[in-house]
Amino acid sequence: MKSRSEVSDQALASKERFSHFAERDVALLKWRFGCGYMAELEKGRYRRMFAGAKRILDVGCGLGEAARYAEGADYFGIDLSEVLVRRGQNHLDRILAVASADALPFPNQTFDRVTCMGLLHHLPRGQIPLVLKEMTRVLKPGGGLVLVEANPWSLYARLMAYLRPAESGILNTSPAHLRRVIESLRVLKVEEFDYDHTMFWPSYGTFFLRRWSWPTGPRMTAWLITLHKWMTRLTPGPLRFQTFWRLRKRAERETPHPKNRPLKEREEETC
């Protein structure tokens, strides 16, 4: 097992690589939060993530554009990129801060909803449990943690992992691995797991052409959304691009006591 210092060194390298990637690709944010087909998909997904929340923390928020879907909830966001946070702070509907996901600048049990979309695969494998533990720390008992991550069994996600250095960590976010990490924390309960299919043709085409063609008119958007729904139905779940996790933080009385867990699990923790 790697030491915490080794993980921190890898995390710093990951921060520098990903911050550069995020800052230079502002067109990607327009594609996701502008107007048209992709923006409509993002709107539906964020509303699903934020539904019923009163106080939200968005980890890896970028410009904080997701705040527009918070629908009356208090929206807080953190990101490693000073450039993106500085740009996003001009809006009154969001409170943003530059911070690392493994050292959140908030007291324990501050939020009833914590969301994290597409961040974990940018982290070193050994840092993922630390980040999940930190997000759980700031979550109230009974609160929800929502994760959306790339699925390495998707052909497109795997191609991205091999072709784009900033996306190579996709290979570390398989559903089986994330489930093992979640279960090892013991304080989180999986309430919903699903496969999401945001990225597929024609979104592939709009992604590669996003610098010129990210807006689509109402008719084209409606046609693409219909096509998207049919393609999603035809694609087997395990081959879709992303996984969607809705987790709940157990109340203290619900947390399994180590003595009540299988002997094999207890032995693994002591090794």
Unreliable runs? 1-17, 262-271
State the CATH topology: Rossmann fold
Alpha-beta classification? alpha/beta
Name of the CATH first level: Alpha Beta
The topology string of helices and strands comes to: HHHEEHEEHEHHEHHHEH
How would you write the strand order of the largest sheet? 3-2-1-4-5-7-6
CATH architecture: 3-Layer(aba) Sandwich
- How many β-strands, per DSSP? 7
- Strand fraction equals 15-25%
Q: Kindly state the mean pLDDT as a whole number?
A: 81
* Alpha-carbon Rg, integer: 19 Å
Keyword list:
disordered C terminus; 19% strand; Rossmann fold; 271 residues; globular; seven-stranded mixed sheet; disordered N terminus; alpha/beta
Write the layout of secondary structure elements.
Blueprint: H1 4-24, H2 26-33, H3 37-50, E1 55-59, E2 74-79, H4 82-88, E3 95-98, E4 111-117, H5 128-137, E5 139-150, H6 155-163, H7 175-185, E6 188-196, H8 203-208, H9 210-213, H10 218-234, E7 242-249, H11 263-270
Parallel strand pairs: 1-2, 1-4, 2-3, 4-5
Antiparallel strand pairs: 5-7, 6-7
Helix pairs in contact: 2-3, 3-10
